[in-house]
Amino acid sequence: MRNRLLVCVFLAVATLAVYWQVESYEFVNYDDDDYISDNSHVQQGLTGDSIIWAFTATHVANWHPLTWLSHMLDCQLYGMNPTGHHLTNVFFHLVNTLLLFLVLEWMTGALWRSGFVAALFALHPLHVESVAWVAERKDVLSTMFWMLTMWAYLGYTKRPGVKRYLLILLFFALGLMAKPMLVTLPFVLLLLDYWPLGRIWLGQSGIEHPVANQANIAAKKPRTQVFRLLLGKTPLFALAAVSSVVTFVVQKSGGAVKALEAYPFNIRITNAMVSYFRYISKAIWPQKLAILYPHPGQSLPMWHAALAGLLLVVISTVVIRAGRRCPYLPVGWLWYVGTLVPVIGLVQVGEQAMADRYTYVSLIGLFIIIAWGVPDLTAKYHYGKSALALAAASLLVALMVCSSLQVKHWKNSVTLFEHTVSVTANNPTAHYNLSLALGKKGMLQESMKHSYETLRIRPNYADAHNNLGVALTKQGRLQEAVFHFTEALRINPEYGKARRNLDKVLLIKRK
Hints:
The protein is mostly helical. The protein has helices at about 1-20, 30-35, 40-45, 50-55, 65-80, 80-110, 110-125, 130, 135-160, 160-175, 185-195, 220-230, 235-255, 265-285, 300-320, 330-340, 360-380, 385-410, 415-425, 430-440, 445-455, 460-475, 480-490, 495-510. It is globular, with a radius of gyration of 25 Å.
């Protein structure tokens, strides 16, 4: 009990040490405006009308009513002061960290290894985006219900009952209403049945760590056992299927799902296969992290996909074969690969090639492999435990420093997108958002510079033409402003803001 408390205190202090700085940060002009600062429904707080809107709206091509309710409650409590909104994200991240530790320790009985997994989750720089970005409330909120679903499932495996199963369904449904990323959770629960819960027995040997539920093992009938466990999760898979269909329909109707001709299957599969290893690369060496990584399109050769796909198959084969002796290997690897499937880009949503926020839950699988695998590898060395403890402490300190520096980029829109354009190439959206942020600060020349850069990369960027027209109008360069407003309308004839801006300029010119 004492050691468990010490781990919880360390996790809380370390997490707050990294993220408390966000209390002085602003909203950013990428999604925060759609979710909070320019959203009149959310700003009303929790009213009858706003609650109905939360459950019926498909704003920003998403259906996640619980996320909307969370933002509405923030507005009711804190108004439009970003401090409260930011710290609420930090609170959820801290809760997720503690839940992950407690649930994993309950399942495995391995306190220090579970604590190390939770510490990696709390402090890894790839998770900064999910915490420091207010609009990513859906990440931290849905993950809380992910952890609660695992907790409820663990309780159910120890003492099965209808009420306990209904609690699993409740937490899972609430998580799906916060973010549909939870559709892979039933698959993860099946992995946990294999290890560490031991509800599926495939003849493993050499398991050195506690198995939580040995009484449920049916060694002589593994296929029957797997079928029974699958059948028991039918309601969860059904909810996941419904959520997947609703999400696809809503995102497609909202224009978030890119047309197949824009990203043909060979391009999507290439980017997906490569992204699996780009995420691993950034997990090992978290540098050049950005809010948006431009999609490579045709520039990524197909042989990259072939090589990445071959590596996926080889690694999966090796870890599955090794699972008889080290069952955490297939569980951790398949957790990582499986939870990324909905967001890996096979169905392209948005314009990004990948996103740091997609690793928020997925990296837990790799963290499990590290926390269990490295001690097993070093167990035979005389000073293995001391060296391991020193290495773990050094790694966590390094992650705290890296994450603290990464958090600083989220101070406001200018710092965020200045960093983004410095670490990515040919990123029109980043240049456009930076031009907007600079324009609001009255820095017209700098703003125009990034608008021109946006149009150099993507000439048919209607918003950039409109933004440049606004800046030129302020400088009195009306003829040039007319050209850019006209171009914006040529690209998008339904662009009402550009139409109004053009009418204003033409009226000025007639005077």
